[in-house]
Design the sequence.
């Protein structure tokens, strides 16, 4: 009876935790200002397409769906985040419980391991911030988790129908973000690594699942075909140009960003899980001496190690953005929970010490996460480039005032995508804006949105910030496409007598259009 009660206790706590986090997020997403990335994907949604230059369309389609229902407020733009995050957590709980039950044979321990896994994932900065800001990572993580669940079920049950759910999950993940290709790599690695799964290569189901995933991914293929493979080239060949120069400081940046976002103690635990999990995965079950079979660790490591290995290698040559490794931590944290539970079982005399480390890791992560969620609501400390939410409404108001004093048709642009997208979002009615594409720079998706012929002969406002000031080389590119440029205004965003952001505004006279050599 005691065992049943404890099993019910952890199961109930898991579902209460999932519901509580969903409720807190539904309330919270109303309050932080829209950040540039969100405004950019919101603008995607206002220009619905099969796909886009930077990313596949899932985030944009999600925003379009909910803003069509409720409008362009932060709540409706971000509602998809909460739904995806809740589904992700449910699937993580179910997958971890199944793996732990198969590994331990004890339902009570399986429920406990699953509960602490979902808590650990949700208190890290990397995952918790992503559940309240809409980016391509949000649908990616949900569909990544769905694919993991399906692959584990088909491997465990040997039931071919699970391949079709895996194919759906893979296709949906691929229309979320291109890094979903690591799901293919992970699945192939697991099938090859685990002898009992190799028979699937002789079955029809995996190949039909691939066809299904390609059908779901086909809008992205069609868009790229129609636009000279622009997105594929941008995410592959264009990025690879910087991979052949040795710049080890980028590895230091990656290590620092991962330590901060995963939070220090949990990140250290993930490194431990990567080492021990890989060691267990190579062990022979009959003589390993470990509590958990190698099969489970082969599954978990297959979906972590390839991504970590590749991006770590790239980080010695180029910048690896802080969120790129997010999917790899999912199965690492599951592995960490299994290994940590094993320590409790094998060394009960040290359980008190292990428990203190568990509490310390979760408490530290939760504290950092709460602080990170409070900062956008109460601007206390200037974060320079780390502050992506301050001052946009004031800037939009100033731009509206300045444009009212200029000739009709005057337009607004910047040297990057963040400032113009925020101006578009915060102006009423929403103002069409332009990016570096107007002078032949990298305009990203703006290159496909803007008709530059319409603005020839018009005056413009160029807006920069202290986070991204106007460089001399940029000015040299801009000056030939206008008759003249002059600084006309400066907007300082100040809180508590501290400068948070400074916008510099230039007036540019008579846009001439792109020089012939820069025309797309």
Sequence:
């Amino acid at each position: 009876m005691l065992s049943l009660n404890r099993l019910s206790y952890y199961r109930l706590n898991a579902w209460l935790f999932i519901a509580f986090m969903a409720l807190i997020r539904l309330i919270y997403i109303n309050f932080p200002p829209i950040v540039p990335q969100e405004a950019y994907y919101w603008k995607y949604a206002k220009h619905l397409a099969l796909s886009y230059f930077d990313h596949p369309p899932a985030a944009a389609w999600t925003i379009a769906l909910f803003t069509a229902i409720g409008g362009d407020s932060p709540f409706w733009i971000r509602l998809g985040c909460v739904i995806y995050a809740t589904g992700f957590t449910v699937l993580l709980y179910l997958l971890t419980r199944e793996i732990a039950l198969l590994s331990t044979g004890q339902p009570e321990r399986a429920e406990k391991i699953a509960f602490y896994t979902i808590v650990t994932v949700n208190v890290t900065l990397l995952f918790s911030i992503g559940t309240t800001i809409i980016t391509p990572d949000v649908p990616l993580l949900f569909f990544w988790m769905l694919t993991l669940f399906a692959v584990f079920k088909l491997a465990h049950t040997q039931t071919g129908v699970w391949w079709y759910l895996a194919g759906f999950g893979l296709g949906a993940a691929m229309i979320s973000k291109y890094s979903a290709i690591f799901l293919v790599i992970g699945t192939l690695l697991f099938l090859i690594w685990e002898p009992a799964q190799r028979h699937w290569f002789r079955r029809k189901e995996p190949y039909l699942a691939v066809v299904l995933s390609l059908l779901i991914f086909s809008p992205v293929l069609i868009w790229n075909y129609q636009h000279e493979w622009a997105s594929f080239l941008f995410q592959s060949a264009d990025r690879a140009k910087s991979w052949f120069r040795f710049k080890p400081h980028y590895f230091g940046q990656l290590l620092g960003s991962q330590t901060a976002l995963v939070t220090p103690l949990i990140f250290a635990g993930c490194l431990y899980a990567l080492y021990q999990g890989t060691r267990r995965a190579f062990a022979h079950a009959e003589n390993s001496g470990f509590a958990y079979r190698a099969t489970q660790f082969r599954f978990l490591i297959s979906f972590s190690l390839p991504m970590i290995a590749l991006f770590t290698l790239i980080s010695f040559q180029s910048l690896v953005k802080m969120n790129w490794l997010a999917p790899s931590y999912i199965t690492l944290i599951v592995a960490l929970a299994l290994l940590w539970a094993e320590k409790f079982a094998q060394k009960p005399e040290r359980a008190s010490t292990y428990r203190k480390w568990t509490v310390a890791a979760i408490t530290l992560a939760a504290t950092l996460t709460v602080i990170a969620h409070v900062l956008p609501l109460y601007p206390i400390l200037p974060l320079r480039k780390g502050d992506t939410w301050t001052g946009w409404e004031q800037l939009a108001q100033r731009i509206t005032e300045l444009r009212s004093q200029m000739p009709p048709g005057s337009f607004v642009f910047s040297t990057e995508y963040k400032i113009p997208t925020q101006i578009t979002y915060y102006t009423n009615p929403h103002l069409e804006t332009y990016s570096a594409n107007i002078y032949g720079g990298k305009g990203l998706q703006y290159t496909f949105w803007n008709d530059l012929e319409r603005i020839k002969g018009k005056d413009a406002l160029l807006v920069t910030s202290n986070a991204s000031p106007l460089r001399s080389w940029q000015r040299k590119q801009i000056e030939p496409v206008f008759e003249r440029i002059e600084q006309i205004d400066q907007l300082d965003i100040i809180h508590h007598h501290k400068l948070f952001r400074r916008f510099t505004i230039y007036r540019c006279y008579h846009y001439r259009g792109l020089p012939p050599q820069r025309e797309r």
Summary: The beta strands are 411-413, 433-434, 460-465, 482-495, 498-511. Residues 286-291 have pLDDT under 50 and may be disordered. The chain is about 60% helix and 10% strand. The longest strand covers residues 482-495.
